[in-house]
Amino acid sequence: MSLVRKELLSLKPYIPGKPVEEVERELGIRDIIKLASNENPLGPSPRAVQALRDYLLKINLYPDGNCFSLKKALAKRLIKQSRTKVLPLLKQSRTKVLPLLKQSRTKVLPLLKQSRTKVLPLLKQSRTEVLPLQVREENLVIGSGSDELIHLIVLAFLNKGEEVITGSPSFSIYETNTNLMGGRLKKIPLNNFTFDLPRMKKAVTTKTKIIFIANPNNPTGTIVNKFEVEKFLRGLPKRIIVVFDEAYLEYVEDKDFPQSLSYLKTNKNIIILRTFSKAYGLAGLRIGYGIGDKDLITCLNRVREPFNVNSAAQRAALAALDDHEHLRRSRKVNQEGKKFLYQNLKALNLFYLPTEANFIFLDTRMDSKILFKKMLKKGIIIRSGDIFGFPTFIRVTIGTRKENERFISALRETIGNSHKINPKSKYYQIPNKSQIQILPNPKQIQILPNPKQIPNPNTTKSQTNPKSKCQRKTNT
Ligand SMILES: Cc1ncc(COP(=O)(O)O)c(C=O)c1O
To answer: Which residue out of 34, 38, 147 has the highest number of ligand 1 atoms within 8 Å of its CB and is therefore the one to mutate?
Structure first.
C-alpha cells in the first residue's frame, strides 16, 4: 500500500526554467539571458533594494504575521486607484441623469414618471458600479507569491469531488492545486487564444466551486474584456468563487480591461489576485496579495501559515509600492520591447499573439524543444510551447532592448535553415486577432484567410459534434 495520498499520484511537479548559473556551468558559456519566467528585465525596484539593506540587521525577528503596514498601504492605494478610475464614470452618469431630472421638473407629471424610469436605473447603476470601493485591511490577504494564494483558495474552499473551471492552456498551478485537493478540473479550450467565458459558463454544474480566470492569460498574453466579464458574471450562481488572477495587470494597455475591483461591490464571491513578482521586480522574495470580501479573506487567513510572508518581502513590497518611477520605466521598457519584437517577428514572417503582458507567445514552426536547446546554446533561455500543448510555439519574456535584439538575432539564426518559409501560404501570414481560430484540439491551429469566413462557434460542426474531443472534455 502506498504511503502517499491518492491525490498526489496524479500530480505533475511544476517544471521551472533552469537557473542561469547552472546553465552557464553546464554549457561553459557566459552572459546567458533568461527570458523564460516573465520576470522584470530592469531588476527590482531600487527603493525596495534600499529598504532591504536597511532591514538586514533586524532579520533575527519574526515577521509581522498580519503584514499590517503593507495591508494598510495597499488598502490606501486601492481606494485611490478605484477613485481615479470611477470618478470620470460618476461624472458621466451625472451628466446623463441631471438633464433628465431638470426636464422632468419643468415639464409635467407624465414626463416625471417617464424620467423616473430612465433616471432610477442610471442612479442605481452609478451607485453599484461607480462609487469608489472601500478596501480595508480586512479585505486583503498577503501570500508568499500569488502561487500561495491560489493554493490557499483551493485549500479553504474546495471539497473532494467538487469542480474547478479554467481555460486551457493557462497557468498550471490551478491544476496542481485542484488535483491536490481531489477536485475535478474542467479545462475549457481557449477560443481565439482567449478564455472562452461563454463556454466556461455553460460548463458550470451544481458541483462547480471555483473558476480561475487568468487575465491576462499565461502563456497567451490575451485578455477577456469588461464586456465579456460582465456578461459572464451576470446570472452566474453566487455560490461560485470567481478568481481573477491579475499577475500582469500593470502591463495591460487595453482600455477595455475590466476594473475587477468594482465587481467586489456587488459580488461577494470574487477574489482578485495580484503580485509583486512581475512589474515590481520582486519575484525572488515571493509576495503577492488577494482582495475580496471580508468573509472569504478570513477563511484564507485561517488556512495560511502564521508567518507565511517573510519580513524582507514585506519591507521590499512596501517600498516598491511607492516606487512610481521604477513602475513607469518597467511599463515603458515593456511597451517599447513589445513594438520591437512585433516588428522583427513580422519581418521573420512568424505568427505571434499581440500581448497585454510582459511576454509573447509565438509560433516558430519548428519543434520547440529542439529550438529551446539551440537557443540555449546561444545563451538564451525561453519556454518551449510543448508544455502548453503547442509544440511549435515558444513563450518569450519581453526583455531590455539589448536582450530583445539578442533574442531576435539568435532566433533568426536558429530558424533560418531549419525550415522553409513560404510567405504566400495562408497559414503563415501574420493574422489579426479576428482571423485566428483555434480548433477544439489545441494542437490544431487554423488561421482563417478572411475574417468573414470565420464559422459561427455555435454552429461549427466540430463544436457540436458530441464525439469531438473537446466536447468530451467539457461534458459535465
Ligand atoms: C497567471 C499567473 N498567475 C500567478 C503567477 C504567480 O506569480 P507569483 O510569483 O506571485 O507566485 C504567475 C507567474 O508566472 C502567473 O503567470
So the answer is: 147
The pLDDT of residue 8: 87
Cis omega (within 30 of 0) for bond into 219: yes
Q: How does DSSP assign 184-248, residue by residue?
A: EEEEEEPBTTB--HHHHHHT--TTEEEEEEESS-TTT-----HHHHHHHHTT--TTSEEEEE-TT
Q: What is the mean pLDDT of residues 447-467?
A: 34
Nearest CA to ligand 1 atom 12: 247
Taking 80 as the threshold, does the pLDDT of residue 267 lie above it?
A: yes
> Where residue 415 falls among pLDDT bands split at 50, 70, 90?
very high
Residue 138, SS3 per DSSP: helix
Q: For ligand 1, which residues put their CB under 6 angstroms from it?
A: 38, 145-147, 171, 214, 218, 245, 247, 275, 277, 283, 288
Q: Which residues contact 232 (CB under 8 A, 6 or more apart)?
A: 197, 198, 200, 201, 224
Cα-Cα-Cα-Cα dihedral sign, residues 206, 207, 210, 215: negative
Are the C-beta atoms of 279 and 250 separated by less than 8 Å? yes
Instruction: Write out the E strands in 338-379.
Output: 351-352, 359-363
Question: How far does the centroid of ligand 1 lie from the alpha carbon of residue 117, in Å?
Answer: 45
The confidence score (pLDDT) of residue 134 equals 79
Write down the mean pLDDT value for the chain. 84
pLDDT digits 0-9 by tens, 350-408: 999 999 999 999 999 999 999 999 999 999 999 999 999 999 999 999 999 999 999 99
In the reported structure, the alpha carbon of residue 8 is separated from the centroid of ligand 1 by a whole-number distance in angstroms of: 22
As a whole number of angstroms, the distance between CA 326 and CA 39 comes to: 14
Angle CA 250–324–90, to nearest 5: 65
**Ligand 1 center from residue 173 Cα (angstroms):** 9
Report which protein residue has its CA nearest ligand 1's atom 15. Answer: 247
> Which residues touch 399 (CB under 8 Å, ≥6 apart)?
33, 35, 41, 337, 407
Q: Which residue has the higher pLDDT, 125 or 202?
A: 202
Percentage of the chain exceeding pLDDT 70:
75
Q: Does the pLDDT of residue 294 top 80, yes or no?
A: yes
* 113-122, 235-244, 270-279, 404-413: least confidently modelled range: 113-122
Q: Provide CB contacts within 8 A for 211, sequence distance 6+.
A: 164, 165, 166, 200, 204, 240, 241, 242, 243
Mutate which of 151, 152, 170, 173 for ligand 1 pocket (most atoms within 8 A of beta carbon): 173
Q: Give Dmax (Cα) for the chain.
A: 87
